[in-house]
Give the backbone structure.
Amino acid sequence: MMIPVLESDDLEVVAFTLDAEPEVIHALGDCLNEAEWQRAAELRLERDRRRFIATRGQLRHVLASRIGIPPSKIDLEYGRLGKPFLSPRTPGRALHFSVSRSEDVAVIALSATREVGVDIEALRPLPEADDIAALCFSAPEQELYRNLVPEERLLAFFRSWTRLEAVSKALGCGLGSEINPDERDFTITAIAPKPGYVGTVVVRN
Ligand SMILES: CC(C)(COP(=O)(O)OP(=O)(O)OC[C@H]1O[C@@H](n2cnc3c(N)ncnc32)[C@H](O)[C@@H]1OP(=O)(O)O)[C@@H](O)C(=O)NCCC(=O)NCCS
């Protein structure tokens, strides 16, 4: 179920498919804490509950295997805008991570020393893509985007969009926040976790 996506010196990205058998989801859910079960319970659709449980269970398993403790002992805290990180109480080495989920795929990026951000999107028609590009892309990027033939635009849109999201996730801020990150501070890599998906992983230089 785990798909290796990227492995370099200090950056690892793995992907998971989330629409697994009920027994698999149940087993993954075993290591979630009460707050995580509460979060799952608040999701209206069964599919969304399943995907959240699978992603969080996989995150706990991956972190636990790297640190060498049981998945249920992983203790997460959250930044002001929701970025999860390992609590300083967690035994073992510090580990940076970032998680992204789109439809039935999740990716987890890990780095022992550098702040990391990852974002993926399932390629799908997005009627509002041109409007979002006009709002969020830089002027040179908008020009490149506008000059593409329509068939090339969607892929280009998702590549740029996941890059913006990955950088803001590395910083722990939302896209709408006032911080204007300098992308030259990051090493940026395009990833393809599965056919039909595009994404970007970034690490702080
Ligand atoms: C927080 C945010 C970065 C998540 O991105 P997303 O594409 O919706 O969802 P993803 O699956 O890629 O990422 C979700 C994961 O990111 C992590 N996360 C949540 N908040 C985060 C933050 N502030 N920084 C970094 N990571 C964050 C969590 O691990 C979360 O997983 P979980 O839901 O299983 O706990 C995104 O919702 C965002 O940018 N919000 C701000 C909205 C905004 O300002 N919009 C204006 C658009 S111009």
User: Anything to note?
Assistant: DSSP finds six helices and nine strands in the chain. Helices lie at 22-29, 34-41, 46-67, 129-136, 139-146, 150-171. The first strand starts at residue 2 and ends at 8.
